[in-house]
Amino acid sequence: MLRLVQIEGAWGLPNISPACMKLETWLRMAGVPYTVAPLDMTQAPKGKIPYVIEEDGTLLGDSTFIIEHLKATRGVDPDAGLTAEQRAITVAFRRMLKENFYWVIIHERYKDERNWPPYREVLAERLHFLPEEQRVPAADAYRKLLVDQLQGQGLGRHTPEEVYRIGREDLGAVSDFLGAKAFFLGERPSTVDATVYAYVSSMIDMGLPSPVKDFGRSRENLVRYCQRMRERYFPELAAAARR
């Protein structure tokens, strides 16, 4: 059986990593059997999570490439039947969320001085592959790496207010396109829903304060959409939230 290597969730989210959350959502959407393996960064083929281990020991990294591989090898494709226009829309929104909005999430968790202390605890508690005394220093080192990447990517050069504006624009675009639809492209979920759910919920359902989070939660269709996806693909988390 496929083994999925990822970090754990928090705040009722399936995962604190949007990329991990996206891949696990897709696995459940596509009905691909898997087990979750202990977090081990030493084997990560691209130095990042998530990654998967095939039954023959083959290691595969990058959530998008993993999904493409599984579509080809498992004979499942939630996107079968999409039009060329729908596929183009899918690529555009996936890229926006993964390559732009992702950095807004990073800003709110790692660069915001209010949010880093509580998030450091969340992150350190999940670094089980390290000795306990190394977990907080590792979290601090990871913060420096991501803040440096944020600066290089460009978003880290903006003021917080400018970052909030960018984040609100991205969430607003998702909300406006989603409208009253059950899923992003209509009545049937597709691969783009795994991405939209993972990145939107990672912001609006995280247990940290953020003006971008507040804006997202003000869009009722985004809140309902994330609840709908959680109830459909992570019913155990939805049930826990109701208790």
From TrEMBL:
Pfam name, any one: GST_C_6
Ranges where the Metaxin glutathione S-transferase domain occurs: 168-229
Domain Thioredoxin-like fold: 18-115
InterPro entries hit by this protein: FAX/IsoI-like, Glutathione-S-Trfase_C_sf, Glutathione_S-Trfase, Metaxin_GST, Mito_Protein_Transport_Metaxin, Thioredoxin-like_fold, Thioredoxin-like_sf
Signal peptide: none
Matching SUPFAM superfamilies: GST C-terminal domain-like (SSF47616), Thioredoxin-like (SSF52833)
Protein name per its UniProtKB record: Glutathione S-transferase family protein
